[in-house]
């Protein structure tokens, strides 16, 4: 409640969109507008129920995943205030630093955003594929394998595919339904792959580029069908 009194609509919309899992920027803005409009008219929120009612009204009482319509908004605000993304990253790095080489780190996530962060950590700490070094520049190699820009003595690899709870487990413990277990292994870095220390990768916005699409000429087959339809109508 205190934090909601300090944010603007664009800020709240950013939190809901970035940390929530609706993946809908328009819906995030609608929720932010409605939440803060109600606060301006009636004063600060006094209970979670009041906030949940606003979310239910905006989502018209339904959620595509069959869950409470306010759940993802609450999760987004909680994740932002608790710095959950940053804490997960720090926990993963701390675990890797303390594990012995060859040992496993098992991470259980309950949200897709959390699972995405685990995968991102893996990509950022994977050992480089030596084949790329034969046809890309050192700078590009550092962009593809960020670990090369560090002097960490360890790397991270995927030990096995992520697993979900069995039907029997979900029957015994319904709260385990969204859980996903990830298995990461701590590896010793390959001394043959020299780190790209001092190499400065480009900003991510400069590494991607929107291509120019080819002109859409339509389908000659479709045009023929349309022509016959128009003739039939005449």
How would you summarize the topology of this molecule?
Layout: H1 9-19, H2 25-42, H3 48-58, H4 71-81, H5 84-98, E1 104-109, H6 112-124, H7 138-144, E2 154-163, H8 167-172, E3 180-188, H9 204-207, H10 220-233
Antiparallel strand pairs: 1-3, 2-3
Short overview:
With 234 residues, this protein is mainly alpha-helical.
Primary descriptors:
RsmH, mainly alpha, 2 domains, 234 residues, 3 strands, 3-stranded antiparallel sheet, 10 helices, transferase, 47% helix, S-adenosyl-L-methionine, globular
Shape: globular
Strand order of the largest sheet: 1-3-2
Low-confidence stretches: none
Mean pLDDT: 89
What does this protein look like?
Keywords: Methyltransferase, S-adenosyl-L-methionine, Transferase. With 234 residues, this protein is mainly alpha-helical. It folds into 2 domains: 3-81, no CATH class; 84-203, no CATH class. Helix content is 47%, strand content 11%. It has a 3-stranded antiparallel sheet with strand order 1-3-2, with helices on one face.
């Amino acid at each position: 409640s205190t934090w909601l009194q300090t944010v603007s609509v664009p800020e709240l919309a950013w939190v809901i969109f970035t940390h929530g899992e609706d993946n809908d920027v328009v819906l995030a803005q609608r929720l932010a507008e409605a939440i803060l409009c109600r606060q301006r008219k009636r004063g600060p929120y006094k209970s979670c129920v009041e906030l949940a009612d606003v979310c239910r009204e905006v989502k018209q009482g339904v959620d595509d995943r069959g869950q409470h319509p306010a759940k993802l908004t609450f999760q987004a605000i909680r994740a932002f205030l608790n710095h959950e993304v940053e804490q997960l990253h720090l926990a993963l790095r701390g675990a890797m630093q303390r594990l012995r080489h060859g040992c496993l780190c098992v991470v259980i996530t309950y949200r897709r955003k959390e699972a995405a962060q685990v995968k991102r950590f893996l990509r950022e700490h994977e050992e480089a594929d030596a084949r790329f070094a034969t046809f890309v520049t050192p700078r590009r190699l550092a962009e593809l394998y960020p670990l090369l820009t560090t002097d960490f003595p360890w790397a991270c690899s995927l030990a096995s595919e992520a697993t979900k709870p069995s039907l029997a487990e979900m029957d015994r413990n319904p709260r385990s339904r969204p859980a996903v277990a990830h298995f990461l292994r701590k590896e010793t870095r390959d001394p043959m792959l020299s780190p790209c220390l001092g190499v400065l990768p480009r900003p991510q916005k400069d590494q991607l580029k929107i291509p120019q699409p080819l002109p859409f000429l339509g389908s000659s087959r479709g045009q023929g069908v349309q022509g016959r339809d128009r003739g039939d109508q005449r």
